[in-house]
Every structure is written in structure tokens, then in C-alpha cells.
Amino acid sequence: MKILCISDQIDPLVYSNAAKERFADIDLVLCAGDLSTDYIDYVVSTLNKPTYFIFGNHNLNDFPYYHKTAEHGGYIMTDRYELTHSHGAVYAGFKTVREQNLLIAGVSGSIRYNNGQCQYTDRQMYISLLKMVPSLVINKIKYGRYLDIFLTHAPPLGIHDKKDPCHTGFKCYLWFLRKFKPKYMIHGHIHLYDFHDERVSEFESTVIINAFSHYILEIPNPVVKEKKEK
Questions:
Q1: What gap in Å lies between CA 1 and CA 100, rounded to an integer?
Q2: Pairing of strands 119-120, 149-151
Q3: Distance CA 91, CA 98 (A)
Q4: Which of 11, 59, 162, 225 sits a CA distance of 20 to 30 A from 38?
Q5: For 81-108, how does the pLDDT look when each residue is reduced to its tens digit (9 = 90+)?
Q6: Residue 46 CB neighbour total at 10 angstroms
Q7: Quick one: angle between helices 122-131 and 133-143, nearest 10?
């Protein structure tokens, strides 16, 4: 299986008349945040492949369609946008999805640095991750594993992140990786301007990939053996 991972900027190789031919063998597209709806729409209409996305800390014009403001100042997920404004991509923020036997869990946003939309403290993100635990446990019971890919915008603390307040990673992601052991974590948020910058790292049993601009991930076709109900 070939997965096109994109984030943070419009890549001229993707936003191109030749994109359909260049990425003809892609099976799936994962968008790791900070991409406009128009760009995601272009990718969907050009490649015509299943596409999943989460939000970053920029390009948030459509964020309120997926989340309504709660009394405590946070956001609650809603399906209103997918019902009325769908552009063919599926929002994977703060939930788990299954695509072509691939188990994916996604979360939006970055660490809180100026109280903007889609920014969270580490504690808030930890609580959001806890809310996904029941669906992950169901995956484990049904398919024999919790998930294959953890799709985020921000990286984990100490891995691919930076020391400035905006680009610090989430400590709770390290807990999540240790507990649920996804094979891959795809993130954005950290721009790569130097060929020496690290794009791919490993943490315990997870390969962590920075999807900045675009990255092609090739993995064996996942096989999910569902347990038959007696």
C-alpha cells in the first residue's frame, strides 16, 4: 500500500497538472494539518483516492463547522460540515477510522501558545486521547491490534519538535505511543528547510514521520482478521 502524506504547505509536485500521473499508484492520502480546504479538495478531485485529514493551528476557517464552542471554552466535535459542506475528504480528528483494513486514529491541533483555535494544553490533549480509548479497545478486540497509524499535526515532545512555545510537542503523545503501539505516527507542524533535518525517527515500536510538504509511505497491505461472533 502506498500512502501520500501531506502537511503545512502547497507542494508544487502535488499541486500540478502532472499529479494524477505522478501519484497514480497512491492508495490513500493522509493530510496532517495546516492545509486549506481548497488544497485538500484539489487533491481529492485530482487523485480520486480515499483522503483523511486533521486540522493544525492554521487554515482554520472551516474548523467551526466540525467543532462547536463548549461552555468551558473548548471544542466539541460535530458532523455538521460533513453533512452539508463535504468535499470528499473525511475528518479524522479526535476519533478512529478504518480504511482498507488500515486502522487510523487522528487528533487535531498544536500545543497552546496564544489561546488560538485548535490549541491545547498537554492535559487537554491527554483527555482527548483518553476519550478515544474505548474505540481503540474495540479495535483490539475485533482486529487484534489497537491501530496502525496515529495521525496528528504536532509531534511528540522531544521528537522532531522545537524549543519555541509554538512548536513544542505533546508529552501525552509519548504515553499514547507506548500504550497503543501504532506502527506509524504521521505528523506535520515542523517545517523542513534543511536536508539535514530529521524527517523519520523511531520511538519504541513506532516509526514517526514528518509529512511536511509531502512524503510517500509504503507499507505492506494490512490484514485485519475480524473475530467471528459466536
A1: 10
A2: unpaired
A3: 12
A4: 162
A5: 443 344 589 999 999 999 989 999 999 9
A6: 15
A7: 40
State how far the Cα of 95 lies from the Cα of 112, in Å rounded to an integer: 20
Task: Report d(CA 109, CA 172) in Å as an integer.
Answer: 13
User: Residue 116 contacts by C-beta under 8 Å, 6 or more apart in sequence?
Assistant: 57, 60
Question: What kind and span of H or E run contains 178?
Answer: helix 171-180
For the chain, the straight-line distance linking the first and the last C-alpha, in angstroms and rounded, comes to: 32
Give the whole-angstrom CA distance, residue 78 versus residue 205: 33
Of the candidates 180, 176, 84, 101, the one whose C-alpha atom is nearest the C-alpha of residue 143 is: 101
pLDDT at 78: 46
Q: Is the pTM of this model over 0.70?
A: yes
Residue 222, Cβ density class (10 Å: 0-12 exposed, 13-18 middle, ≥19 buried)? middle
Residue 127 and residue 31 in contact, taking contact as beta carbons nearer than 8 Å: no
CA distance 85 to 37: 11
How many other C-beta atoms lie within 10 A of the C-beta of residue 113? 13
pLDDT single digits (tens) 167-210 = 999 999 999 999 999 999 999 999 998 878 899 999 999 999 99
